[in-house]
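Tutorial handout. Part one gives the primary structure; part two gives the three-dimensional structure as tokens.
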Amino acid sequence: MKRINLNPKYVQRIISSYIICTLLGAGLVIWFHHEQSGLLAMKENQRLKNEAEQIVVSSPAYELIMATDKKEITEEAIKDKLMKYISGKVLTIVAIEESENKKRNILAVEVVGDLREYFTVAEEISADNPQLKIEPKQLNKQNNQLHIQFTISS
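Part two.
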């Protein structure tokens, strides 16, 4: 067997190149692992945000807020609010007529009852919903009952 005679500088260069390549490779692996962990964390964070938004958006409270937060209030929403405010009062709804007028929903209402109760309801609706406008139209007394006609517009 022959012995191979290697130049020590050549061996030193090979070993140092191997060490440098190993360190660079290890550095790249660590960097890629760190980036992957960061990307996974961002992905998980986004998933949790989306899930939280979905829960909030599907909740009844959010739907109620969005329904009352809209600038345009539908006739059904006006009717619901009117029913809510009239319940418990000495007022009876006789007639409700819906109409639309250039970006506005108008609800013509006729109630029978006490004038003070009407003013209380009108004040409560105006205070809670400033975008709703209440206009009295007519007062009639029929069969010893006070008929109050007014409009609610949005």
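Part three, for discussion. Residues 71-153 form a domain with the Gyrase A; domain 2 fold (CATH 3.30.1360.100). The beta strands are 91-101, 104-113, 133-142, 145-153.
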